[in-house]
Specification:
five-stranded antiparallel sheet, homotetramer, globular
């Protein structure tokens, strides 16, 4: 429940935005897996703030400190735990949130659920900052999957309605995603950046979509019904803040096709059975087909905007205007790309563990 | 895993399409809840085949037989179990599926996963027929939620690209959905039926989308991160065969809006805090806002079509054409409407149990 | 929770003593495992009533009907479900239990928990009859473990203080257990039977202990802390009615030894490391040592006795005498022997699944 | 699995004896519960080493540092996490354990399970030191249960066969347990201490038993079968290192009684139904009876002894003598008393959460 995930793997995430530290425990990892710290730091850096005009200027020291689970850079079978100290703690920026909830944030639902005891500073446990420990866990799982030939890559598929080129669903080229601003088509990326700049200038924000592909998955992974890969992935991906939609393969567009168009015909290439198209997104009946697994995620526009918004004073029970102060991403989509990869890696690693693949 | 769902509630679904029986066990239900069998049968009838031109002409006796969990029509606290006998068992219609997998079906992934031991008859455990026990469980949960003022309603929001009117996200009128063919706008429904007829005449099929709304949910239900309502609902809804997309509130369309447009401004009506819009679909940070919970589901076109399709012979490892025989729904969307309601009711009931609401 | 068990395996048990049927669903079983129905029936027969003076004269038709999960006597990967019809349903024998709870039974706790809605007939879901579906599940797991060289055997280690010979903890001879009345030492068995007869003549009952051994387990199974084998076994064994104690290896007696006596010294035999003694009962740190796994279970005397006992009338809130009518086992221990084997087999099978052994 | 526990509560424990830190995350705690740090430290001190002749002279700084879950000493609804830094890290004392496993320890099973990648220093994740984070979690749960009138107390019921007075099962006086060396009868305590001294002088160790009682539990808590209180408690208590036996109420001794002796007769006192005896230990059918919950735990003698023991050299595959060096408790039972209380508190708190009691 809540901030735990997994069946054979057990991920537990803790921390609040302005508390002493955030962190995670990953239980159930086999012993003997190597950890490449440099690769992990590079992965974490993709999520880190302060990278460009699209991101907040806040500085976060996202270097994880490992507390357990490793001996000489190899997993030892014990639960792996790591923390990141919060340097920016208990700031007074958020003091009025208990009275005046931010539209689009969990402030008011949390206040009701936790009867006023919730940590409001920086959004508390609801903060996007909690995706940092998710990236520690997912960054490691991604490394380990990579060693088995299972690769995960994502890119911004749209921002503010401007679309990137999509992956070829039959044979996605994960390496085509650019460093820095993660798009395939740089010219689309430029237009997106312009939209982000415009929103920022308007004290506003924009959202977008992310496309993710996994290659190298064998056929036959996953379980029927509620243990299907779509269910497993959806549970963790909807745990990423700001995600409001998720669709596999042809998804919503596929619902407008005919069966004869949406079904993926089988063929034989090099004595291997594949499908000519991949509208199924690599999953049928919850189980991998052996084709690339492909899905798209909808990310809502950052709710924190400095524009005036209508809120209410809970104390006085009257209408009140609000301008959200602080440094916020005018578009969270670029930084969400590695987070989606991380969440995906965790789910796929758990599926692989359940299937005896590690 | 697999065919079980829930945290405090434990649902277990079993059966294959042509095996002796299908059924379900629902563990964790409080004692003393009444069962209205007539209402349950009416609910089951909405899913039953043979209702019109859009559905298969197969007859299924979907009357559940309760084996445990009840005393005099009240739950007794023991696991509730019910089965439906399959009358159409072990038919020979599907004998060649082990050699020639149907495109768009789980035949080949299942064959790989289960090493050839899977039950191929009628799709086995992957059959849409398994949604009947899901409807028993969900039909009951829906009754019990109704008694607490929590109501669930769904309708066809599109078929083959033809769209129905949508629910008002702030105040959805569940009663506006028509009996029979579940749309709000009858004229749109007629056009959908025409499209379904056309597909049928072409030995083809069409897909569509379903919109679902839940009213009467208190604010503060759900957990942060992976225990959020989106995660809980997604896990069960992706367990429904043919679902390939799911989006909450403004969903994918919302990703094209600006924050100032997508955020729902707070207001006070009758001394109660509500939001003027409901782009959040009733969920922020995984937790109910007190506004109606609204989401949309993408259903792929029925993969079983009698049109010739490209498949392969696994024995001879060569290309082979296939025409799927048998009686199949040219459009599964209408019958999927109560199934989505059922899945939703189960997830919401579990959330309510976890929250001490029953 | 409640009547479900397992991590990768998901067992769900349902039914009440006098309801329409009892049964179980076993989800998560690999495909391709053969079912030997004859062996299963022989196993079920060991639990069945009506076998001798020590058991009730009730007749139960314990023949399981399989509803799902099998194709031609092999598991097909879908949840395996089986039921046993209750022939003796809704008898009036138990009508006064709602007013006058039986000492030593769950009548009163259940009445409080379920607010009077519980099924009182025959003890409802608390009946020992629910061990029949446990034996279906466990009987199958035992077969499958046997094929991997993992064997489970139990015997009555004491009745009313009269003790049987114990297994050699280093090299238990499971075949030494007698058919019929399951003891190793027939002369001890005769004395036990005499005690049971005496208790019966006195309208009373006796309890006892069961010793269980598992051979053929590889070293390294199980997880640390709460996932240890003792924890896994304890959870299911305490789910067997009437179990009130459980101890592994030297157990309570070992707590009186010194470390130098209780530690098992390592030795090398045939180039294999073993221990000279087995006070650990085959488990250290929750993990198998490769030595036989051995434990003992305490079974309380059957609470149903026709002797007059002190109870109360709940309606009148006054003292009331009670004589429990009906046909009851004066000693449940012999019939509990296969039940303990079944519970053990389920736990071990789940551990093996988690470890990729199937 | 492994180092996680709980249904509505989710406890995750991490750390190795000589790693950077040990700690725990407790997810699922309601918001608004106060934390009394002084009481927690006093509770932790009862487990801390260096308290007397019976304990190791090691010094451990067991002061927990809270990383998340609290605002101003109240729980905020987010996962509560705390760590304890290890000051004694990576010592060379244990370097030869990979070659020569200690009898009675998990060294060899762990080596096999983790293929040589396990952390051997100080027993790694299998160390008794991991009971410190268990005591953080349990110490807090105990505080919160106390505020609802549910009290937990334990004492040494025996050491080396010397027995303490037991609790009155119908009305246990938790306050009768002495501070310091936790027995009821000081003269028995003195004899136990003498036995411990003797064992120490002999470079040996002794074991014992612990009796635990919980008062104030309402009737009706717990679930049938595998969700019963015995199962819930057993799972966590067997997660405590060195526990090899567990028995509820009359336990193993009760198995020698007749039903007429072991059944607890009902009576009415002050218009409340109670039982005259409490052989059931407060649990029938897995559900609380409203009487005190009572159980006994067997703790094996400390396996670490400096006496020469027979082990083997894994490298050379030949017999080798071993004397375990380092500072070890000649009797772990006194320090295990608060650990058993902590484990119990966690299980009972989870049961209470599931039942909507918080």
């Amino acid at each position: 429940m809540s901030s735990t995930y997994g069946e054979k793997l057990k991920l537990s995430i803790f921390g609040q935005s302005h508390g002493p530290a955030i962190g995670m425990t990953l239980d159930g990892i086999p012993a003997g897996l190597p950890v490449d710290f440099e690769a992990l730091n590079a992965f974490m850096a993709r999520r880190a703030p302060g990278q460009g005009s699209f991101a907040t200027s806040r500085k976060e020291a996202d270097q994880p400190e490992f507390l357990s689970g490793l001996v000489d850079s190899f997993t030892c079978g014990a639960p792996l735990s790591a923390i990141i100290r919060n340097t920016n703690t208990r700031s007074g920026d958020y003091s009025n949130l208990k009275d005046c909830p931010r539209p689009g944030h969990a402030d008011l639902p949390a206040q009701i659920k936790y009867k006023g005891f919730q940590d409001v500073a920086g959004g508390g446990h609801f903060s996007g900052r909690l995706t940092a420990p998710l990236c520690i866990a997912g960054g490691l799982c991604k490394q380990w999957l990579g060693k088995k030939g299972i690769h995960i890559g994502a890119h911004i598929s749209s921002v503010a309605g401007i679309t990137d080129k999509l992956f070829d669903p039959v044979s996605p080229d994960l390496a085509a995603v650019q460093d820095g601003f993660p798009v395939i088509d740089l010219s689309a990326g430029k237009k997106m950046l312009a939209e982000i700049e415009k929103a920022k200038a308007d004290s506003d924000s924009v959202g977008g979509t992310i496309e993710c592909a996994i290659t190298g998955l064998p056929a036959g992974l996953g379980e029927p019904m509620f243990g299907g890969l779509e269910s497993k992935l959806a549970q963790i991906i909807y745990g990423v803040p700001a995600v409001k939609g998720l669709a596999f393969g042809s998804g919503f567009a596929g619902s407008e096709l005919r069966g004869s168009e949406n079904n993926d015909p089988y063929t034989i290439t090099d004595n291997k059975i594949t499908t000519i198209t991949n509208n199924a997104g690599g999953i049928l009946g919850g189980i991998t087909t052996g084709m690339p697994l492909i899905f798209k995620v909808a990310i809502k526009p950052t709710p924190s905007i400095s524009r005036l918004q209508q809120s209410v004073s809970l104390d006085r029970m009257e209408q009140q205007e609000l301008s959200v102060q602080g440094r916020h991403d005018p578009c969270i989509v670029p930084r969400a790309v590695p987070v989606i990869e991380a969440a995906t890696a965790i789910a796929i690693f758990d599926i692989c563990l359940l299937d005896g693949k590690f």
